[in-house]
Design brief:
Blueprint lengths: L20 E6 L22 E7 L20 E4 L5 E5 L2 E7 L3 E5 L1
Antiparallel strand pairs: 1-2, 1-5, 2-3, 3-6, 4-5
Length: about 110
Amino acid sequence: MAKKKESSDPSKIKLQPLGDRVVVEREESETVTAGGIVLPDSAKDKPTRGKVVSIGDGRLLDNGQRSQLQVKPGDRVLFSSYAGDTFKVGTRELLLLREEDILAVIE
């Protein structure tokens, strides 16, 4: 019986968060200030903006139903600085956070 070969390409991994969790990819931080000063990596702040990659099914309510999330994949969002857990998939650095940690949707 032949074994099915699993894909080793991390970019093809599908992440499905559970409950009211959201996977966000942070935007790149600014490397040059408005005055033209180049910032080293140690002086950069972690950006609090990102793009929603995937969303969970929603929070489970007391009556057994799921509440819909207010964000959808592709939305640009603003979130708390120290919210969520950071992890890597291949070379991509992603953030797993709760919907309540998202402050706004950027249009």
